[in-house]
Design brief:
This protein is an alpha/beta fold. The protein has 8 helices and 14 strands. Helix content is 30%, strand content 23%. Bound molecules: 5'-O-monophosphoryladenylyl(2'->5')adenylyl(2'->5')adenosine and trans-cyclohexane-1,4-dicarboxylic acid. 5'-O-monophosphoryladenylyl(2'->5')adenylyl(2'->5')adenosine (25A) binds next to helix 1, strand 2, helix 2 and helix 8.
Length: 342
């Protein structure tokens, strides 16, 4: 493409959509124009962009004519319906929903891990689940060195992952409880303030939640290695921004904590914060608003031959969603593959 791309942001009024606009602006993404789309009820809403405002348009079936790139974060149902329409109109989609991730014809990409999978896109590219993205960014450099056999992960996930309405629900419950009022859960099945909920997304027949199975299946696809075993417990905690994860990793070969620290400190998109003597480790409140994946508490699992424990934290709305999507678009531009193949 010779001219700069014309970009649509679909679901622009949501927590992730707003961050996509902010990320395009901060990274000086070379767009000839950016247009914000959402559902009919948000049409006319003004969103800040590049010192001015964008007026939100209603997303319709013919919205994509004349666009080169669309960043979607409007939920699975919207993506299922509209992403193929966009691709048909010649507009490449980077989709943040779970709709296309496990489709064999759709690449699932984290630029630090598997950028080459972008070469076979057919017009839709899936952005992985937020918890999966930060985990694979931390695992990839270790896997390349010592081959991962198995990962046991437990997550501590912020409410912003669910969107604006969940952020508002945690705020409201905190103030209701301080004022001696009853809380009435709406977004989550139970009170989230001062509580932990071992359920993210819906339960499946095997007893796991859908969020847990996303971590299991998406990790194999992104790492391009079906032999990596992952088992997950995903937990919602009363944090606004930033997902934290405890990873227990078993390797084929030996990897010392010092080697892991060195590999991670050289890895793109990773910052190691691991100074126990100074009580320094990654925390959600520090990762919020940052681009990197933060890794600390690196230590041996003393119960197995080749095992490490790690603590991994990232901003779920940035690296977990908006930033990763914009980084994918940047690679498409750089490699001159921002076009729907015939
Ligand atoms: O199915 P999935 O893939 O599992 O995804 C389900 C949902 O998860 C959220 C996202 O909600 C998604 O809809 N999500 C969070 N992280 C995600 C991630 N990494 C993620 N999903 C996937 N991957 P969300 O709140 O972030 O964004 C929702 C956006 O979707 C728009 N939308 C819904 N249906 C649509 C549609 N757009 C086009 N066509 C459709 N049919 C939705 O727009 C929103 O932009 P909306 O207009 O229906 O609702 C926005 C309303 O919210 C208010 N509001 C939003 N932000 C603020 C706000 N008000 C004040 N301050 C704010 N900061 C607006 O007033 C508006 O009414
Ligand atoms: O699949 O509620 O990307 O935190 C990520 C956020 C599903 C919901 C996904 C949440 C979504 C999830």
């Amino acid at each position: 493409m010779s001219k700069n791309p014309r970009v649509a942001v679909v679901g622009a009024t949501g927590a992730v959509g707003r961050e996509m606009l902010k990320t395009l602006e901060e990274r000086n993404f070379p767009a000839s124009e950016v247009v914000a789309f959402a559902s009919a009820k948000s049409a006319g809403v003004k969103l800040p962009f590049m010192g001015g405002e964008l007026t939100v348009r209603e997303l319709k079936e013919d919205s994509f004519i004349g666009f080169d790139l669309a960043l979607f974060s409007a939920g699975g149902a919207t993506s299922e319906k509209f992403a193929p329409l966009a691709a048909k109109a010649g507009c490449v989609v980077v989709d943040n929903s779970s709709a296309w991730r496990m489709d064999p014809g759709t690449p699932l990409v984290v630029p630090e891990v598997n950028p080459d999978d972008l070469s076979w896109h057919k017009g839709i590219i899936a952005n992985p689940n937020c918890s999966t993205i930060q985990m694979v960014v931390a695992l990839k450099p270790l896997h390349d060195e010592a081959t991962i056999k198995r990962v046991v992960v437990s997550t501590y996930q912020a409410v912003s992952g669910t969107g604006q309405k969940a952020i508002a629900e945690l705020e409201a419950q905190v103030s209701q409880l301080f004022n001696g009022l009853e809380v009435e859960p709406k977004v989550y099945p139970h009170q989230i303030a001062f509580n932990c909920l071992p359920q993210i997304d819906v339960f499946l027949e095997n007893g796991y939640t859908k969020e847990e199975m996303k971590m299991v299946l998406e990790t194999k696809k992104i790492m391009g290695d079906d032999s990596i075993q992952v088992t997950a417990t995903t937990v919602r905690v009363p944090v606004f921004y930033g997902h934290s994860e405890s990873l227990n990793v078993e390797f084929e070969q030996d990897l010392s904590p010092d080697e892991a620290r060195m590999l991670l400190s050289r890895a793109p998109g990773v910052t190691v914060v691991d100074f126990p003597e100074k009580k320094a480790y990654p925390m959600a409140i520090d990762a919020a608003g940052q681009d990197d994946v933060f890794v600390g508490r690196i230590r041996r699992d003393e119960t197995i031959a080749h095992g490490l424990n790690l603590w991994v934290v990232a901003d779920n709305i940035r690296k977990g969603a908006a930033l990763n999507a914009v980084q994918i678009a940047e690679v498409l531009l750089k490699r001159n593959i921002l076009r729907v193949p015939k």
